[in-house]
Protein 1
Amino acid sequence: MKRLSKDELYDLYWNKGLSTCEIAKTYNIGESTVKLWMSEYDIKRRSLSEARKLHFKKVIDREIREKFSKPSPELAYILGVLLGDGTCYHRKHTGRREGVSYEIQLGVTDYLFAEKFKRALEGLGLKTSIWILRRRCGRKDVYKVTSYSKAFYEFYRSLSLKDIRKFIVGFEPYFVCGFYESEGCITYNKARKQLVIQISNTNYEVIKAIYDIIIDKFGIKCHLYKAKTTLGEKIEYRVVIQGDERCKRFLEIINPVIKNRPKNVNEEKRWLKR
């Protein structure tokens, strides 16, 4: 092949981020030849630390493309949970553990919920563990689900709610299920003698997205309210589904492992009779 010009070589190496090895493979030439040309053109090469950073960035980008860029039921469910009770954050460590960890975490008192979230993360190829935080004085134990992935952290933090709404198309029930298991509840209204499902959150845009899916995709009538009470300085918003048939249809569509029937004993008996 013809010799690469200085501008071409500079563009490949510095602008496009290719290594000398990758340039050599792309143009079917020896790596030593690429290095010789760079020396002749007086093109500065990366330091060892810069090369390592670029390598790890490429590894993360490749992992994002292979594992997370493709919509799936597991990913839609995980996104729903993370917009509710779940968290995805980075933490700096000092001392012997100096460095940064990128964590996906969920802490809940329902084991079934924790186990389902763990299976969804494992479905994306992430190593995940559950450990129990023992509580005293009659308080319930908390099941902590933890996974570490810089690639997932970078992917999740790059998404806006608009991106998420596009990303979950075709997998809306899984997304709503994850959010409902985090932020929803089902009760029996004695005054009206009917089941009621409520899904609450202080983020209006998220609640509006859930409301739109229930109305447009599930075809279930529901209402969006601004709650009378506030959580600190934040206003709480609620999606409310009323009526036995609507509530049951909603639960059949999303198929949650928890919050799928009223908690009260008398309400439970009434539910089983139907």
Note: DSSP finds twelve helices and eight strands in the chain.
Protein 2
Amino acid sequence: MAQQVAEWATLLAGTLLLRPYVFIFLAVFLVLAWRDLGWRRTFVWFGWGWTVAFTAEYASTRIGVPFGLYHYTGDTVSRELFVSNVPFFSPMSFPFLAYASYCLARWALGQARGWTPAALAGALMMLLDVVIDPLAVRGDSWFLGHIFYYPEPGAYFGVPLSNFAGWFLVGWAIVSGYLWAVGGRPRALGSPLGGIGLYYGVAVFNLGITWSIGEMTLLGAGILVHVAVFLVVYDLKAMTATRSWPDEWPAGEQVVEAPIPIDE
């Protein structure tokens, strides 16, 4: 048992060394979400998000649902931690991507609950993947490495369109599941602006890597998509500017979190 724990610790350390950018984004998410949602709800969000993402990845690598069929190569199995056939780091990105997308959605719509921000968050997370997944397919050209492949390359820079549908569903499931868990009454203890910064930080990071490996067509497509995203969310914000945000608390007001119906 002690030897097994030591092996897990070594592989986890290997994951940190191989994927430091994931853990940097994760640390930023934890700080922002703690200030925004409170620490209990942050851990609810992370635990639920990781579970949804791992389930989706596990199923996709076997039956092709919801992302389409793909396979991890296992080239780094002796260097980083895996859970079954899925690298431990991979599902960890979904909670912070969903949170960032939710922050942008609730800012644009002026509301933090209901099906509308959950659906918009799913769409915004899927649009991040328009940059992320085509770059990941080219992982052997940068420090990600060749960690997975699609048996049949898809129509969008090697990514099948089913993958984007899966990202929408997973993003929606993470946000809507969280809203259900907190009783549909999330209280914004902070501001969504930090999460919006995280959203565009992830986008800029991936676009920068795309530029560094010389994929200029992919870079141009990603920039066009996210210019359009910015214009759409800005227009949504303008349309809802006259509405009050029911979940926003006055600056400086002390807020005590209501209990959530989850075993702690």
Note: The beta strands are 71-72, 82-83, 86-87, 148-149.
